[in-house]
Design brief:
The chain is 33% helix and 25% strand. It has 225 residues and is α/β, with parallel strands linked by helices. It is globular, with a radius of gyration of 16 Å.
């Protein structure tokens, strides 16, 4: 395996909006490190379809501890937009293990700092539920994608009105958001993506079955510029 280069770009104005909470930041880093195998088991088939045929240079918003590195092509380069510095150590180690050249940017997804039309592919999984402004993030994704580029995503979303899952999401929305650093279990992210101005959007809806009921309703899709 080739040695992997890892660099970090920090831009203070873009990072200060993210609350580096003394408890929740480390907790989330540990939680997702422990839960990744379980979550991946549920999402693997969907990720395999959405991330098939990725180019060798990829931008990922919110890569966390590196759950999607398995789906990058051999010898890939990844620009990782990850504001939670408690994730960075594990992400760097995972990139080294996968032979991925990592450029790590401690920035918010609303302001990646990347040039216009500079990426062929942007990916995300379980990220748009947490960002402060999903519409702004999607506008940023469109800005950095080249014509013909793709945004590939998997997200958990609000359940249909009147369902038991929707009732639980409503009841737990505040403690859920506090625990998971602003994560909303009530966002209509399909609506956000369809309204973002992409040339085309393909979305599939599905459920996974976990004890975390607010997390069970999902979408996966590809949006093209």
């Amino acid at each position: 395996m080739n040695a992997t280069q890892s660099t970090t770009s920090t831009a203070t104005p873009a990072v200060t909006e993210f609350e580096q909470h003394a408890v929740r930041g480390p907790f989330n880093a540990l939680f997702f490190r422990m839960m990744d195998p379980y979550i991946e088991h549920s999402l693997r088939s969907h990720k395999q379809r959405m991330y098939a045929g990725l180019p060798r240079e990829v931008v990922e918003i919110g890569p966390g501890v590196g759950a999607n590195l398995d789906y990058l092509p051999a010898g890939a380069s990844l620009v990782a937009i990850e504001p939670n510095r408690h994730m960075h150590g594990r992400l760097r180690e995972a990139a080294r293990q996968h032979g991925v050249q990592l450029t790590l940017r401690e920035r918010m997804a609303e302001q990646t700092g990347l040039p216009d039309s500079s990426a062929d592919a942007v990916i995300s999984s379980l990220v748009l539920c947490t960002v402060q402004d999903p519409a702004a993030v999607l506008a940023e994704v469109r800005r950095i994608l080249r014509p013909g580029g793709t945004f590939r995503f998997l997200e958990h979303v609000v359940a249909e009105t009147g369902t038991p899952t929707r009732a639980v999401q409503r009841i737990l929305r505040r403690p859920w958001a506090w625990t998971f650093e602003g994560c909303s279990c009530e966002r209509d992210l399909e609506g956000y993506v369809r309204a973002a101005g992409f040339e085309s959007v393909e979305i599939e809806r599905y459920r996974i079955h976990t004890p975390f009921l607010p997390f069970n309703t999902h979408i996966a899709g590809i949006a093209r510029t």
